[in-house]
Each structure stands twice: as C-alpha cells, then as structure tokens.
Amino acid sequence: AYVTKFLTSLHNQISALRFTSMSNSERLPHSILEIREIAAAVRAGDADRAEAACHIHIENASRAALAQMSE
After folding, report:
1. Contact (Cβ atoms closer than 8 angstroms) between residue 27 and residue 34
2. Phi first, then psi: what are they for 24, rounded to 5°?
3. How far apart are CA 68 and CA 7, in angstroms?
C-alpha cells in the first residue's frame, strides 16, 4: 500500500512538472532531443551516458517549469 501511494504521488508530481515545463513553447524541441539522447544511450547499453542524459533532462525540465511558474 505504501509503495503504491508513493509511486502515485511521484507520478502526479512528474505529470505536474511535465505540464508546467511544456507550457513553454520553446521547451518541446529541447525535450525531444534530450529524450532521444536518453534512448540512444539505452540502446547502446551505456548506463553512465543514459544516467547523465536523464539528469540533464530532469534539470532542464525543472528549470523550465520554475521559469514558467515565476512569470
């Protein structure tokens, strides 16, 4: 029960972040490139590269969401 509640909460927070960051029309092309990099790293079996790409994607999405919220 706890894990389900935790994952539901996490999913809801990610969805809110996604909605807010994507409210910036300039974010989508960057997000697509970032996700492609993540996918390429996974396909290549390069865990370190995939992890780094995920961190970059999350950081950029966070920045975009915070910028959107401050407007």
Report:
1. no
2. -85, 115
3. 25
CA distance 6 to 48: 26
**DSSP labels, 3-21:** HHHHHHHHHHHHHHHHHHH
Radius of gyration of the chain (CA): 14
Q: Over the stretch 1-58, which tens digit does the pLDDT of each residue have?
A: 899 999 999 999 888 888 877 777 888 899 999 999 999 999 999 999 999 999 999 9
CB 48 within 8 A of CB 64: no
CA distance 66 to 71: 9
The model's pTM is 0.76
Name the token pair of 57: 């994607």
Residue type, 49: R
Please state, as a whole number, how many other Cβ atoms lie within 10 Å of the Cβ of residue 44. 10
